[in-house]
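Quick start: read one record
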Amino acid sequence: MRKSLNDTARLLFFALFCAALLTGCGGMAEDFDTLVNADMPKKVDEKVNLDDYYEKFYKEVSMRSHIKEGTSDIKALDSLPKDPSGNVNWTAAVVNGYINPRGSLEPGVPEDQPLNLNIFLEAKVPLMANVIFPHSIHTYWLSCNNCHPKIFIPEAGANPISMDEIFKGQWCGRCHGKVAFTFWPRENCVRCHIILKGQSLERETFK
């Protein structure tokens, strides 16, 4: 009898945990419907590669940013597009042409071109959407040596990234939550976790 009750309790806990993931940081159902066009297929076409899928989502997220004045005492920031938390969405500001920063303060210095390379990162939680890391927007703002090799070793499988360590300021947390967009609210989660399990066109372990 005790074993049966324990099994029931474990199942109930697991169900509640799954529900929390679906409605929390993962933002699977509600947030994907919010950020992706309703007529956009939720399943990736086999002919579409990872880069194409990311670009579609990336463009859609950028288009959904909005100008919300009165959120900053700095006039220049007040007129820029905002994310759900009211902070400036710098990606949307660049993509939509609100700003066009120079690569150097020195005149005549050639601009470094962003690296168009997307990296697939599998979330280690079965119900959490997987991540596509875009080098393009990161190398638009930063040079390669800002991250490599001190923060990230440029080798597949060499970086045991975890959300716990990110929240503590390691890995992506070296910038995100400080000078880049924060982890909350949950709409920000799907700016990285954008591909549902089984739809990434990549081999997955944590399903």
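The chain has one domain: 2-195.
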